[in-house]
Amino acid sequence: MIKKFRIFAALALVATGTLILAPLQILSMKTGLWPETFILKIWHRLIARALGLRIHVKGELSTKRPLLVVSNHISWTDIMVLGSMVDVKFIARADMEGWPLIGMLSKLQRTVFIERERKRTSGEQASEIAGRMAKGDAMVLFAEGSTGDGNLVLPFKSTLFGAASMAIAEGATEQVFIQPVAIVYTRLHGVPLGRRHRPIAAWIGDEDLMPHLKVLLAEGALDVEVHFGEPIAFAKGSNRKETARLMEARVREMAQAALADPRPSR
């Protein structure tokens, strides 16, 4: 009964907030009355609160621009976690565009939707990402190309690091800064999540969204750590694959540190 009430209350909070904030975000996008991420950060925080996410941050988003933020990926909730804290825009897989609520939220923050399997469109997508970075948007790339179970960082795919190369080749900038970020779900109700239970937070592969949403809403009180690493400069002559491997190593190091010594719940 308590879990059912929690789900109902959380959904009511999100629905009410969305009815208020969505028109304000549309107004912001059309008029520029506020920065586009101002309303979105409130919206993300609302959803994070409804889910019971308790966010712990180490480090900070780089102020250097153009900026490509490279992160591991565990769940659709990663977007709420990052979006609630910092002014960023996202690079997401194409099918997310049609998801209820998440798709609408993504469109309202000008997410770049990519089709990883269609090589014909990869150049256009990289060009759009490059253009957005050149205009000052900090773009978030979930570089594994899929979601993991939270225990391991999957190999990073180097393809979309090509957006950094393209921004330089097109003359939009002389260099792009690339910053590693690790997202780690560490505790449930204050108790450390072990290897066996950490996948509770994970949304993997073709798993349906609604069952996973209900689990998170029913449980609540999930701690997540976000670790920001030091950015590196990617310039003409930099190797895309080597950069992808370096970012993968740094994200894995930060993730393992968070898993080994999770911060106390609050």
UniProtKB/TrEMBL annotation:
Keyword terms, alphabetized: Acyltransferase, Lipid metabolism, Membrane, Transferase, Transmembrane, Transmembrane helix
Stretches assigned to the Phospholipid/glycerol acyltransferase domain: 67-186
A matching Pfam family: Acyltransferase
Keyword Ligase recorded: no
BP GO terms, sorted: phospholipid metabolic process
GO cellular component term, pick one: membrane
Signal peptide span: none
Subcellular location(s) per record: Membrane
InterPro entries: Plipid/glycerol_acylTrfase
Any one GO molecular-function label of the UniProt entry: lysophosphatidylethanolamine acyltransferase activity
Major place of residence: membrane
Protein name as it appears in the record: Phospholipid/glycerol acyltransferase
